[in-house]
Request: fold
Amino acid sequence: MSTNAYSVYELNSLKGRDLLSLYDLSRQDIDMIFKTAETLKTMQKMGAEYKPLKGKTLGLVFEKSSTRTRVSFEVGIWQLGGYGLFLSKNDLQLGRGEPIKDTARVLSRYLDGIMIRAYRHSEVEELAQYADIPIINGLTDLYHPCQVLADLFTIYEKKKKFSGLKLAFVGDGDNNMSNSLLLGGSKVGMDISVASPMGYQPTDMILKKAQECAKLSGSKITITDDVYEACKGADVLYTDVWTSMGQEEEQEQRKQIFSGYQINSEILKIANEDALVMHCLPAHRGEEITDEVMEGPNSVVFDEAENRLHVQKSIMSLLMG
Reply:
C-alpha cells in the first residue's frame, strides 16, 4: 500500500460525521479507516511527520477514567498536529447540572471535535444531536467502537482477511465489547460466537442489528452458554473483564457466575493452532484469562493496544480533517 497519506482522503465519506456506533459505518467506511490507519502507522514507523489537523483542538471529555483511551487520543491528536484538551466531569458545568444540549452548542464554538467516554450512551447521542462538530464515542455502557476498530485492524494485520474467520467472545455477552464485536465482526464478514451464562447474553436489540449486518456480509452469529462450542475451531479468542466499570457492587456475584468463562490453555487447545488471543484491557489475570495464555505466543494483546493509537489517528484525521 502506498504511504502517500493524501490519497486516502480523496473520497472521504467520513468528513464531519460522528462515530457513535459501528452500526452507523458502512463496510467502505471501515475499509477507509483501516487504509488510513495502515498509512499513518507506516509513516510513524518511518519517522515521517504528517499533520493534517494542525491548529485543530479535540476536546477529551471523561466521565470514566482510562489509560489507553486518554493516552492514545492525546498522543494521537498531537502527532497529527492538533491539541487535545482534557476535560473531566468536574471541569465542566455538566457536573453541576448544565443541560447536555447547552454544553454541546458551547463546545462546538470552541473545538473542532469531541471524544467522550461516558456512562450512558444516551448522553453521547444527545451530545451529537446538538453539536456542530464530530463526536467520537470513546466508550459508553452500550458500545466501544474505537476499541473494536483497533481489534479488527489487528486481526486483519495478522490474518490478511476477515471472510472465513471465526471470532469467539467469552464472558459477559451484554456489555459494550460484546455488542461492538458483534456489530463490527458481522460488518466485515467474520463469524461470531458469543459464550455467556444465561441472563448475560446479548440483547434482542443488538442481535437484531448484528444479524442485519451478517445477512449483508454472509457471516454467521452463534449465541451459546457453552464455552467449548463457541471456541471450537476459532481463529480469534476474545475476552473482557467479568465486572465492568460501574458494576463493582456485583463483583463477587459475577465471579461466581462467570467462573467457567475463562480463556485458558484448555480452551486454546480446541481453537485453531494459530488462533489469536485478544483482550481490550485492563485484564484481571486469573479470572477471565490466565497469565499463561496472555503471555503466550498466541497473544496479540499489546499489538492490539498499540493499534488504538493508529486507528484513532485515522478516525480523527478522517472526521476532523
User: Anything to note?
Assistant: The first strand starts at residue 57 and ends at 62. The chain has twelve helices and nine strands.
